[in-house]
Design brief:
2 domains, three-stranded antiparallel beta sheet, flat
Length: 335
């Protein structure tokens, strides 16, 4: 499996260090807020904005230095920049175009809203502080990616490959090796540490991480963590499609529990529309029938009325390993 370039690993560590330091500094300052939110903010705002400005500049500078370093390490031509990227040009603005002063003041607004909803002073300040650190983390990540894009474009980079920084979650594993023309094109979940590596057409293939190759190299414990449960890891070893297992958790609430024939089972609502792999498998087995399909109000597609059992429940009801594999196939987990 291709490994993350050392320069990318070091860059990732440095960026996380910068962001953590900024968030810690913000928390210290926010703790000085008093009962009078406006008066406290007027006193603390200059220091908070200084933290934001400094962090943005340092994150952007790190990104600008990273691009030629990773190009050199991966054996690519390091072209002279066609223009100079000034990190300070990215300071003072958040990813959505608003000033960082407006972003920071959002913490005060959240605190006031909490008071209006009946929260105590302590609860309101906690809510405002949480907003401040969350919004800042997102803003600094946006700054980093924007600086990467600008620095890459200045050196003729036109293609980016998404690489894992193990250990990785299932959603990231699914997208390993994804190629894009834009370094901000793929969505990240909180604390995602995947890296976009700048590359060229003829080198992109050598950087692609195959999800199955990565999963096959994990221990049982690591595999369970990546796929969501020990039962899912067992199902994968029994031939289940990793995409099906990971997608079962695509949306919050997709995996549910219910009483079926006197047994408590886990099932997922993912993949059971008429266009889904699970629906087709369940219909072949007689578990889904077009005339019994349902469509919730406002939903776009019909869904099978019968639940799609999760591997955990399949292994509970299976009479032997062969029966478990049969059920995995009938519920669309295996091809």
């Amino acid at each position: 499996m291709p490994s993350l370039p050392r320069s990318a690993e070091q860059y990732g560590r440095d960026q996380r260090t910068e962001i953590r330091a900024a968030l810690a500094a913000l928390r210290r300052r926010w703790r000085r807020m008093g009962d009078d939110f406006d008066a406290s903010w007027a006193r603390l705002e200059p220091g908070i904005l200084t933290v934001l400005d400094t962090a943005q500049e340092r994150v952007a500078s790190g990104a600008v230095e990273y691009i030629p370093a990773v190009l050199a390490e991966t054996g690519q031509l390091v072209r002279p920049p066609s223009y100079q990227v000034d990190p300070w040009r990215l300071v003072g603005t958040s990813g959505d175009g608003w000033g960082t002063d407006s972003l920071a003041y959002g913490a005060v607004i959240r605190a006031k809203e909490a008071i209006g909803a009946g929260a105590s002073i302590a609860q309101a300040l906690h809510r405002g502080g949480t907003y401040l650190t969350t919004a800042t983390g997102t803003m600094l990540s946006d700054t980093r990616r924007t600086a990467e894009r600008m620095a890459g474009a200045s050196r003729g980079v036109t293609l980016w490959v998404r690489m894992l920084e193990p250990p990785s979650c299932g959603r990231c594993i699914q997208l390993a090796g994804k190629e894009t023309r834009n370094p901000v094109a793929f969505q990240r979940h909180p604390r995602c540490d995947c890296r976009n590596i700048p590359t060229t057409e003829n080198l992109a293939g050598s950087m692609v991480t195959d999800p199955r190759e990565y999963l096959d190299g994990l221990s049982d414990r690591e595999l369970a963590r990546a796929l969501g449960s020990q039962s899912n890891a067992r199902a994968y070893r029994d031939g289940a499609d990793h995409n099906q297992l990971i997608n079962a958790y695509r949306h919050k609430g997709d995996v549910r529990s219910a009483q079926v024939y006197g047994q408590n089972v886990k099932y997922t609502t993912e993949g059971v529309t008429r266009r889904g792999q699970a629906y087709r498998a369940m219909r072949r087995a007689g578990y889904a029938q077009g005339q019994t399909d349902v469509r919730a109000k406002g939903a776009r597609y019909f869904r099978a009325k019968a639940p799609r059992l999760m591997p955990e429940s399949i292994y509970q009801i299976a009479t032997d390993p062969a029966d478990a594999r049969r059920l995995l196939r009938l519920y669309g987990w295996t091809g």
